[in-house]
Amino acid sequence: MDAARQRPGSDLVPTPIGARLREWRTARHLSQLQLALAAETSARHLSCIETGKSRPGRELLARLADALEMPLRERNALLLDAGFAPQFPESALGAPVLARIDQAIDAILAQQSPYPAFLINRRWDVLRANDAAARVNRLMLGGRDSAHANIMRQFFDPADLRAAVANWEEVAGELIRHLHEQVAAVPGDRVARELLEEMLAYPGVPARWRTRDLSSPPSPLLTTTLRRDGVELRFFSTITTFAMPRDITLDELHIECCFPMDDATAAHCRALVDGSAGARFSR
After folding, report:
1. Segment 210-228, tens digit of pLDDT
2. CA 211 to CA 183: how far, in whole Å?
3. CATH number, domain 17-81, options 1.20.1050.10, 1.10.260.40, 1.20.1090.10, 1.10.3720.10
4. pTM for the full model?
């Protein structure tokens, strides 16, 4: 396998195999017996693996990863911890092997116009966006582009898109909930934990957000309301992911498509295309 395309678990801290399994089992709230049954092994064997007295084979590791619902990056890290070669490649989006996927992504983004759409990785970085996204962002930022290529930073930085989000506490609270869930779901994910701490350090962030809220269920549908100079745009979003990915890159991507929540938002987005709306913010 091409080493330049294989970057398994690069942001995960190397961990003894037993400790990593125990960390994941604890995060999934499973007993040794429950995990052993799901992975078709004995609780005694699993206990020996967790304490370092036994070394699991590749097949057992695959069954354990399935039972723990581990993402592909973490499965590679698990294999490396056990002394095996990683299984899943991490290909660049521009690589020939992903050419058809690349075309499909561009088609989805383009088709979503005149409404915003974004290609986002698991770090919440915006890798691509359609022209509609740029138009809406510039309208809400007074003609300038965002200083950040990361959705979280755009919504938490008071000098960025946050200033235009009329229901900021509702939207930001939902984003923080997602970050907390990501940290809880993937033990050892240092980058996600650092991103969460960075967002919590922004001014005006409620202290209660430092703790993961398990008491209140998420709202069935979140509307983001953007407002500037008398213009109000209201969107809801859909998320598209790739079915049964076998490449880390695809496993960690999703496409967010925004749709107008009312006729006024739809009309304004259409008007932005021909420049009849927000002309005073033209570059």
Report:
1. 998 877 777 778 999 999 9
2. 12
3. 1.10.260.40
4. 0.86
